[in-house]
Design goal:
Layout lengths: L2 H24 L2 H28 L1
Helix pairs in contact: 1-2
Length: 57
């Protein structure tokens, strides 16, 4: 897995978690849901990259 793609997927997870926590703190359900979706997207990307890495070697 490339360092750049790995960093981006982890960054998405962190960004999503931050939005989710901020949404909970403020009481903004929309922001909270967007944060959760970003976390899921980041985890999926990370899993896809791990899978690609497994098949390359």
């Amino acid at each position: 897995m490339g360092i750049g793609k790995k960093t981006r997927s982890i960054g998405k997870i962190i960004e999503g978690k931050t939005k989710e926590i901020a949404g909970k703190a403020v009481g903004n359900k929309t922001m909270e849901k967007k944060g959760k979706s970003e976390v899921v997207k980041g985890k999926v990307r990370h899993a896809v990259e791990k899978g690609r890495d497994t098949f390359r070697h």
